[in-house]
Design a protein that fits this description.
The radius of gyration is 19 Å and the shape is globular. The mean pLDDT is 88. It is built from twelve helices and two strands, in the order ααααββαααααααα. A two-stranded antiparallel ribbon has the order 1-2. Helices cover 71% and strands 2% of the residues.
Length: 292
């Protein structure tokens, strides 16, 4: 590796790791809470970007826009769980899989109907003044805000799970839904809260990615790519999501720099296939015993 290119690799990885961390947290939170997979992740991510772009174009303040979009996506997550996924409790696993897939298809079809076929741009909240970091890394202020927001969300989530009553109840429900409900915990409410938090993180990822490039339907695969760092760290491990995000971001940044952007998806999803074959429960995850 040419060491002169190392700052470029690290600069790209820093920004990308922040986006991957937010998307990975969405996958992890949903899975920890419900053992479900949300295959509409990419569509909701893009929807957040289009909502933010419309509000900014209408003259809304950028920070107020971010708050409203986060709350809106969180509400959508809670409503999707309450009215579409909760009624499927006890059904075969393919049922919620098909529901989330169907929701994603509906959103993907509605976006061009509402916003048209063109991509949209998100106004940056800061000027693009360069910020010099150690090791010769240079990022703009707008690039730097993405990983900082991701770290704040990550730290807040860890604190919530470890030191609050709600976090303790979530851990108990994750261990055993039946025992948690028998001890007086309202599991259904907890699951709705978990979905709201997961979709709020997804909203931030959609806004960050829209500012990094453009708000476009072509960003939908990013939702599925965010599953790779989540599984690499361990789908049941919030802490592992950060490690997975950093690893995948560095690998992808190197691939883009040396091989080109066309190789990005190939390498990332090859890692996912290899991971499923060797260690499907991830670096920090634990294998779940299956009784027959």
């Amino acid at each position: 590796m040419d060491l002169q290119l190392l700052p470029d690799v690290l600069a790209g990885a820093i920004v990308l790791s922040g986006i991957y961390l937010l998307v990975a947290l969405s996958w992890v939170i949903v899975y920890r809470a419900s053992k479900l997979w949300n295959f509409a992740t990419g569509q909701f991510l893009v929807l957040a970007g289009f909502l933010a772009a419309s509000m900014l174009a209408a003259g809304w303040n950028c920070w107020l826009t971010a708050v409203v979009v986060v709350v809106a996506l969180g509400l959508m997550g809670a409503l999707m769980y309450r009215f579409l996924l909760r009624p499927l409790a006890g059904q075969e696993m393919y049922a919620p899989f098909i529901v989330t897939l169907g929701v994603g298809i509906v959103i993907q079809g509605l976006i061009p109907i509402i916003w048209g076929p063109n991509n949209l741009a998100l106004a940056a909240p800061f000027s693009n003044e360069p910020v010099d970091l150690p090791a010769g890394i240079s990022l703009t202020t707008n690039d730097l805000i993405v990983p900082l927001v991701a770290v704040v969300v990550y730290g807040t989530l860890l604190a919530l799970l470890r030191w609050t009553k709600v976090g303790g109840q979530m851990r108990a429900a994750n261990e055993s839904t039946l025992l948690a409900s028998q001890s007086g915990i309202n599991v259904w409410v907890l699951l709705g809260v978990a979905f709201a938090i997961a979709f709020a993180a997804l909203a931030l990822a959609g806004i960050a990615n829209g500012q990094r490039s453009l708000v476009a339907l072509s960003a939908i695969p990013l939702g599925l790519k965010g599953l790779v760092p989540a599984m690499l760290g361990g789908l049941n491990s919030v802490g592992g999501a950060a490690v997975g995000a950093i690893i995948i971001a560095v690998v992808e940044s190197m691939v883009v720099l040396y091989l080109g952007a066309d190789w990005s998806n190939l390498v990332v999803f090859s890692i996912l296939l290899l991971l499923l074959a060797i260690r499907p429960y991830g670096i920090f995850g634990k294998a779940e015993a299956q009784r027959v």
